[in-house]
Each structure stands twice: as C-alpha cells, then as structure tokens.
Amino acid sequence: MKIVYSLAWEIDPFEPIKETFPGVEWVRASALDGFGDVLGDADGLIVSATQYNAKVADEIKQKAKKLRWMQSAAIGIDNFVKFGIPDGVTLTNAAGLKGGTVSEHTFALLMALSRATVHMERFRAAGEWQNDLVRTLITPLEGRTMVIVGYGSIGQQLGRKAKAFDMNVIAVSRSGTSDENADKAVTVDKLLDVLPEADVVAVVLPSNPDSHHLIDAKAFAAMKKGAIFVNTGRGATMDEKALVAALQSGHLGGAGLDVFEVEPLSADSPLWTMDNVVLSPHIAGTSDRTYALFVDLVRGNIERFQKGEPLRHAIPAEMLKTTNAA
Question: I need a labelling partner for 212 at 20 to 30 A (CA). Which of 37, 120, 249, 326 fits?
Fold first, then answer.
C-alpha cells in the first residue's frame, strides 16, 4: 500500500506510526507545488483541505489512477465539493477532532475582547498604566447570551464551555439540533429572530452554498448594539464588508476573527487597525492534541482500508455532489 500525504503542517505527524505499518510506503509531497510522479501508484492520499484547489484536483484526477481513498485533515468538505474528487474514491474527513481546540480558541478571542486584553496589550506596548480606562472596557460573560450559529460537533463543544461560564446558549442549525447545554434551539431560518437576544454571536459553520454570507448586513443589523461577533468557522459565511461597516459605525462592540473571506487577509484591510478587533491567522483548529487525534484517525483508517472494512467518517457520495458536511 502506498500513501501520499500533503499537509499544511511544519511537522511530519506520521513519523511515530510509520513503523507500525511496514507494508505501507509513505511519500510526503506538496500538493501546491505539484505531486510529480508519486501519485501514479498511490492507494491513499492525505491532504489539507486548504490545499485542495482546481489545479490540485485536476492533477489527482489525471495521475492517481489507483487511488481509492482520500483523507482530509479538516471537517469541512467545501473544496472537495467545489472541485470534485475522482470517481470511485472514498473521501473521509476529520469530523469530531477539532471541537475542543476550535471551541477553546473561540473563547480565547472572546475573552480577549470581553476582558479588554486587546486594549491592555496596546497600553502595555505604550508603557501606559490605564487602570481607570480599562475598568470601563471589561464586560463579564456570566448571565450573557451566546448565539451559536452551527451546532454540530464544534458548536456543541462551544455550548458546553459557554455553560461553564454561566452563559445562556441559543443553538442555531439546519436541523434545530439541541442538547443539554442549549437553553433554546432554532433552525437557520429563525436566525434573525434570535440575533437580537445575543450578547455574543459565535459562528462555527462550514462553508457551503447555504451558509455563504449567511451573516450579512441584515444579520449584523439584527444584533443588539454592543454585541461581540466571533467567527472561527469559515470566512465565506460572513459578509466581511458588512462586518467592517458594523464595527466602524459602533453598532458592534467588537469582533474576534480566525477566518476571512480571502486568506491571507489583505494588508489594507481596516480590520488590522481596529481597536475592538482581535485576529488570528486561521489556526483555531491547531494544537498538538489535534495532531495526535488525527494520526489516530489515519491509523485506524489504514487498518480498515487494508481489511476492506468501512472507513471512519466517510462522506456519502451524494454529499459530495450537493452540500457540505455539518
């Protein structure tokens, strides 16, 4: 068995398990630089979803004639839906692996705003002791309401953490999914009805035609004045220009963003210089634990592949033709 892998990670996560599979040939490659000749006899391909574009997809379709399994390092499958995968290939994703770290990062961005950390860092850099001013900028989370848009595996982890902060939780999803941490659950078509209740709006949606610009100018206007907006899902789910306008007008109290409509974020974006905005470079799902969990998933799927058993987190073929995974 031959596995080719191209990941947007500096480390090689599979070194610890290569000896476990003496019959497997591992080839590390770069999808973005071109696979060259390594795909011709590959049985499996592990690839970062962010690297999967039209050129990469076309090269795989043309060269990987033996390919039967593709493993994505992400949950969302929007790029695979958009650019397609070869016929007869099973796509598996990393569902359930990043709920903990993405929800933690969501709170890191939120806390930087609610506890005025973003302001304190600016004062620290200037050597200023702004005790009286900082006191006026701190907003407690206890008793506040968080609307979580996208209540799948990540959203549910976020809901659990929000309850630990004694927050009220409103879950928004296509199905109206609820669990013990949601005080209320509604379907996406009721989003505008619950946004006025939110002190915090946290978006953890995948990108698909239904979610594109779901958070638009109308949605931002529906949020209460002073609300905090956090997006650790996908940048395409928000209208970035509308977000900037809502921040510049003072309608929104702040924004914590890990994802953007175009990445990297352009150097001339006003988001870089706003005092009430905290940014991170699309790394919410990254941690040493995430790497270990992903390696465990790959290990299990190699074993299943070799035995001819169903692979974990296999995406149904019809979903690759229609919409994204939750």
Answer: 249
Instruction: Name the residue type at position 122.
Output: R
Give all strands of the β-sheet with 184-187 in edge-to-edge order: 184-187, 168-173, 145-149, 200-203, 228-231, 254-257, 277-279
Q: Is 104 assigned a catalytic role?
A: no
Task: Say what the pTM is.
Answer: 0.85
Angle (nearest 5°) at CA 212 between 208 and 214: 125
313 is catalytic: no
Range 17-21, long-range pairs (CB < 8 A, 24+ positions): 17/295, 17/298, 17/299, 20/299, 21/302
Q: Tell me which of 128, 263, 303, 309 is the catalytic residue.
A: 263
Among residues 105, 119, 144, 282, which one is catalytic? Answer: 282
Give 239-265 pLDDT, tens digit per residue. Answer: 999 999 999 999 999 999 999 999 999
234 flagged as catalytic: yes
